[in-house]
Amino acid sequence: MSSPHADATTASAAPRQASLPGFLVRAWTAPQRLADAVLQALIVAAVLAAAVLILLFTFEGEGNPTPPLRAGVLALLALGLYVFLRLLRWRSAATLQVEPERLVLERRGDRFEIPTASVESVRGWRLPLPVAGLALRMRSGKSFQYGVQVEDPLPVLEALGQEHAQVREEARHPLTTFAHARATVLRPGALLLAFKFLLFPLIPGGIMFRANQYITYGGPFAQYRMYGLGPYLQSFFTYWVYFGAALVVYAAILRVPAEVLASGGTWLSPRRARGIRRFVEITCALLYFVGSLALLAVQFLA
């Protein structure tokens, strides 16, 4: 029979253990991190190349406009690379537990217990690719074998920095505040991205498809009556894909100066990182959703 004192000790220890900070991270070796960054760059390049091909060659020639086959091949390539990237990230998934006297990193059956006294410094990745992360420098002079990728390094640094002045200073670094703002302020989820690049293109695509039906065939359903449902739906699909590609390129063009502005503003004033990020994201959203339709209206009025 267990004693009341033993039960009390167990009960009081459990809440303390549960309250210890724990974080979902990815643990990378240097080659794995490089592979992740390269795969991500290849996916972006393939998607942009497919979009550009669609814009350049969909309406070329005398036949019915259709997206070029090469764009479809690149899209499938991007999808395959994305599946491989997700697999790589799944294999690197880990948890980081911050305890008073040690750090515990668990990764796919491996468990590393790192005494905090053996850690000389914790620094954010100065080249935050593919996203932000942390590197542990040991007192032996060597770096810990795994880098810890975490999209928002600030909570991790705050948990680590309770007794380390260097870590508290790192938490105020512009790269840390930049990553924190990017991870927490108006971050788009999967549903918003689907709406942005799959559903929203139906608006300009539908407008131009309907205009083409009137101009080319004389009415909204004239092509359907003359040639059947297949060619009619193919025309609609072509305009949807075309404007989806145009919006992908447009979003990429907007994103480059937006990130430059957010990064530069954060370096000048780290304390205003969240406000700068909010301004950038709202401006990008307005230019994307309102600006793209305004550009379409200008073409009609020109």
Give the secondary structure arrangement, pairings included.
Blueprint: H1 4-19, E1 22-28, H2 30-57, H3 69-92, E2 93-98, E3 102-107, E4 110-115, E5 119-124, E6 133-138, E7 147-149, H4 154-160, H5 165-171, H6 174-184, H7 190-199, H8 202-217, H9 222-227, H10 229-268, H11 273-301
Antiparallel strand pairs: 1-2, 1-7, 2-3, 3-4, 5-6, 6-7
Q: What does the model show?
A:
- With 302 residues, the chain is of the alpha+beta class.
- The protein folds into two domains: 16-184, Pleckstrin-homology domain (PH domain)/Phosphotyrosine-binding domain (PTB) (PH-domain like, Roll), CATH 2.30.29; 189-302, no CATH class.
- It is built from eleven helices and seven strands.
- The chain has helices at residues 4-19, 30-57, 69-92, 154-160, 165-171, 174-184, 190-199, 202-217, 222-227, 229-268, 273-301; strands at 22-28, 93-98, 102-107, 110-115, 119-124, 133-138, 147-149.
- The protein has a seven-stranded antiparallel sheet with strand order 4-3-2-1-7-6-5.
- Strand 6 and strand 7 form a beta hairpin.
- Helix 2 (30-57) packs across helix 10 (229-268) and helix 4 runs antiparallel to helix 5.
- It is elongated, with a radius of gyration of 26 Å.
- The relative contact order is 0.10.
- Mean pLDDT is 88; it is low at 1-18.
- The chain crosses the membrane at residues 37-59, 71-88, 190-209, 239-258, 279-301.
- Keywords: Membrane, Transmembrane, Transmembrane helix.
